[in-house]
Amino acid sequence: MSSKLIRGTFILTLGTFISKFLGLFYVIPFYSIVGKEATSLYQYGYVPYTIFISIATAGVPLAVSKFIAKYNALGEYAVGRRLFKSGLMIMSLTGILAFLVMYTFAPAFAKMVVLDKEQIYTIEEVAYVIRAVSFALIIVPFMSLMRGFFQGHQSMGPSAVSQVIEQIARIIFLLAGAYIVLNVLSGNVVEAIGAATFAAFVGAVFGLLVLFWYWKKRKKHLDELLEKDEGKTHVSLVDIYSEIVVYAIPFIFVGIAIPLYQLVDMATFNRAMAAIGQAKISDTVFGIVNFSTQKIVIIPVSLATAFAMTLVPLVTSSFVSGEAGKVKKQLDQTFQVLLFLTVPAVVGIMLLAEPFYTVFYEQSGIGTDILRTYAPVAILFALFTVTAAILQGINEQRFTVFSLLFGILLKFALNIPLIKMFQAEGAIYATAIGYSASIIINLLVIRHYAGYSLRSVAGKIGQIVLFNAIMAAVVFAAYAGLNPLFDAGSKVQGTVLIAICAVIGAAVYFFLSLRTGLADGLFGARLDRLKNKFGKAKA
C-alpha cells in the first residue's frame, strides 16, 4: 500500500507541476498576440474569477478524499459513495450560484477598476470579460469533487491527467481564440480577451470529460467495493459536511491569498494613480504589476514550495507522535531548503530583470524596474505558503485565517498612500508589508505551539545569504561584461544571455554549498545518490 501511495503522490505532483508549468509559460505567446495593454483587461476578469472558484472549490478535493479514504479503511464504502452522490448535487448548485452572482454583479466589479474617463477600458468592456470567464464556475466545482472522490480511493491518475488536459485545452483555446478574433475575424482586443477568458470554461469541459471516462472505466471495480461494505456505520451527512467545511476553510484562504492581494489592487490601484494624474497609463501599469511581472515572480515560488512541502507531511506525523526533536529537525530542513532554492532564483531575476522581461514579453524600462522590485516578494510568497502548511500540520490552521486577514488589512490601508508616493512600486511595497506581517504571525504561532524558532537555523541562513551575495557579485560582473555583446531587444539573444549567467551563478552557488557542506546537510541521501551516480558515470 505504501508504494502505491508514493506512486500516486508522485503522479499527482507531476500532474500539478506540468499544469502549473503550462500555466506560467503560455503568457509569452499570449502577450505577443494581444499586446501589453490587454493584459490588464485579462487580469480584471481573472482576479474575481480566481477568488470565486477558490471559495467554491479550494480544499474540497483534499477534504473529500480524506473522508472517503477514512471510511474505505473501515470497510464502509457506502458512506463514501453517499457523500459523493450528495456532494455532486451540492457542488453543482454551488457552481451555478457562483456563476449567477459573478455574472450578475460583473458591472459592479468593473466599476471597482474603471474610475476615470482617461483609462483605456470602459465599465461595459471590463464587465464583458468578467462575464465571459464566469461560465467556468458552472463546471469546476463539480469537477473538483470528482477529483476528490478518485483521490480518496488512492487513485491519483484521474486527477493528474484531467488537470493536464484541462490546462492544455484551456491554453490552446485561449491562444487560438485570441488570434482568430484579432487576425481572422477582425475583432477588437476586448472580444479577443473575452475569448481568452472563456477558455477557462472550455478547459473545464475537457477536464470533466476525462474524469467521466475514468469513472466509466473504473465503475465496475468501485461497485465491487460496495458489495464488500460492512454496513455498520451510519454517518450524518450534516456532520460530514460540517467537518469538511472546517477542514477546507484554511485551504480556501491560502489558495486565495495572492488573488485577494490582487483584488485590493483592483479596488485601489487605478483610484490612486488617477489621484496623482496617471490615469492614462494606469491600466497598462496595472497589467505589468498584476500579470506580467507576477507570472515571472511566481516561477521560483512554485519550484521551491513544491520541494519544501514534501517535508510537511513528515512534520505532521512527528508532531502527532509527540516527537519534538524530530519536528524541530524537519522544520529546520523545510525552511533551509525553501530559502536555499528561492533566494538564488530571486537574486537571478533581479540581476537579469531586463533580459527576463524581454524574453517573456518585450523590452521595457518600466517592466524591468517593476520586475526588479517585485522579485524579492517571491521569498515572502513561499514563506507564507509553507508556514501556513505547517500550521495545518500542527493543527493550528485557524491562525492562518487570522494572519492572512491581518496582512490583507495592512495591504488595503497602505496601498493608496504608497502608490501615491511610489506609483506602481508602492503596490508592491504594500504587498510585501502585508505578507511580512502574516509570516511573522505564523512564525510566532509555530514557536508557541511547536516550540520552534528560526534562531536555530540562523547560521545556515547566514551562509545562504553570504553565498548568494558572492554569487550575485560574480553574475553581475559576468552580465556587465556580456550584455554589450547582445542585442537587448532580441528574445533569442536574451535567452542565451540568461542561460550563460544562470550556469555561471549556479556553478558558483553549488560549488560554495558543496565545499562548505551546506548542500549535504540539506539534501543528505539525495545528494549522496547523485554523487554516486555521477562517479559511476565518470568511471
TrEMBL record:
Membrane disposition: Multi-pass membrane protein
Protein location: Cell membrane
GO CC terms in record: plasma membrane
Domain of life assignment: Bacteria
Record flagged with keyword Transmembrane: yes
Pfam families tied to this protein: Polysacc_synt
Presence of keyword Cell membrane: yes
Keywords: Cell membrane, Membrane, Transmembrane, Transmembrane helix
InterPro entries cross-referenced by the UniProt entry: PG_synth_SpoVB (IPR024923), Poly_Biosynth_Transport (IPR050833), Polysacc_synth (IPR002797)
Transmembrane region(s): 12-34, 46-68, 88-106, 126-146, 167-186, 192-215, 244-264, 296-315, 335-353, 373-394, 401-422, 428-449, 461-482, 494-512
Protein's UniProt name: Oligosaccharide flippase family protein
Lineage: Bacteria, Bacillati, Bacillota, Bacilli, Bacillales
